[in-house]
Amino acid sequence: MFLIMAIIIVVILTILKISLGLTQIIENKRYMESGLETQQFQNIKDEVIKTIETSYYQNAEITENVENFLKFVRSYLLEEAMDLNGFVVESIHPNVSVGEDTKLNVTVINLLGTELLSLSLTFNSTKNFSFIDDEEKVQTDFIFNTDLDANYTLSVFYLTSYGNETNNITIPVEIGKSKFIGLFDLRLISPRIELRDKFTRAYTFP
């Protein structure tokens, strides 16, 4: 009986040791994968910025290239069981001349994974839009006229079935300059981790 009990105890201890080892291996694997996904998310943000800069220097359409890049990455990540969601606001205006009307073009891209029930853009007037599907965009123009450098505010409000959000974006205007201002609210969701970052980038073009 003592021999049988000793064998049973050894077997139990061995199973416990193997189980604890497997648990540690699984935990280490999850930790490594989360670290890789964090790096991947950072790479996506870096590439968004590079897309803006490259588009400008190649005299290409900035807003269209950013949209195409994010949709491509989103499609790729879906195959890896990850979701890239987000909300993007891009504004661009040509060189500003004293006392002349200047057009501010605003593009909003819905990548939230759900429909926008309503969207309101307020600059020097308010424009309202409804029922914007996932991966759809809205483009509109505002006209401003200034005699000197000034900071304007573009207010963006959206409503979905699960909540609403308002973003106030500073639009710095300089006489003789063209500018691009982009707001990027991106989220990476996987079975292991959820990451989110909201950042703004502004570029002044001669």
What attributes characterize this protein structure?
2 helices, 5-stranded antiparallel beta sheet, elongated, Immunoglobulin-like, 43% strand, 206 residues, 4-stranded antiparallel beta sheet, single chain, alpha+beta
Structural class category: alpha+beta
- Reading the helices and strands in chain order gives HHEEEEEEEEE
Unreliable segments of 5+ consecutive residues: 25-32
Query: Total domains, how many?
Result: 1
- Major β-sheet annotation: 5 strands, antiparallel
Q: Any idea what the CATH architecture is?
A: Sandwich
Shape, principal axes of CA atoms:
elongated
User: Over the alpha carbons, how many angstroms does the gyration radius reach?
Assistant: 25 Å
How much of the sequence is in beta strands?
A: 35-45%
How would you write the strand order of the largest sheet? Answer: 5-2-1-8-9
N-to-C terminal Cα separation, in Å?
91 Å
What oligomeric state is this?
A: single chain
**Share of helical residues:** 25-40%
- Count of beta strands: 9
CATH H-level homologous superfamily name: Immunoglobulins
Number of helical stretches of at least 4 residues:
2
Mean pLDDT: 86
CATH class group: Mainly Beta
Architecture overview:
The chain is an alpha+beta fold and 206 residues long. Helix content is 36%, strand content 43%. It contains 2 helices and 9 strands. The strands form 2 sheets. The chain has a 5-stranded antiparallel sheet. A 4-stranded antiparallel sheet has the order 4-3-6-7, with no helix packed on it. The radius of gyration is 25 Å and the shape is elongated.
